[in-house]
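Appendix C reproduces, verbatim, an entry submitted by the partner laboratory led by Prof. M.T., so that reviewers can inspect both the input and the predicted structure.
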Amino acid sequence: MRASAASIVKEVTDTFARMITAIDEKDAGARENYYSREEFVSAVAGGDCFGRRGDWVKAITSCFAERDSQHLEPREVQAIPLAADAALLTSQDTVDMQLKGGERPRYRHAFTMIWKKGPVGWRIMHSHESWVEDSIG
């Protein structure tokens, strides 16, 4: 039976929300589980591109280690079904951090992700995220 567009949107946005919890908890292991092991294409973060999943996981782990705390607040999330087992998700977010050195930066942040449904659920095949420091605060 084919999934409805509404059910795809709900499943993907619910999975994304769980990934945000892992990000807020600085849990690199949990965050990495949202990326496909079988069909990983790439991850782009700022100006860095990762063509291998292992390199992406190392980058996530390193970034999380520099932070005492963080909170990512999705402001606009949109999921668009592309097929019964694929979806595009975009989000505009704000991120507040407490870095180990005491700095407290705030960022405007965005995700663009391609999700694919497999035997273990929805996983990210490709992601891109960008951010800029929020001077409005």
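The longest helix spans residues 5-24. Additional entries are available on request from the coordinating office.
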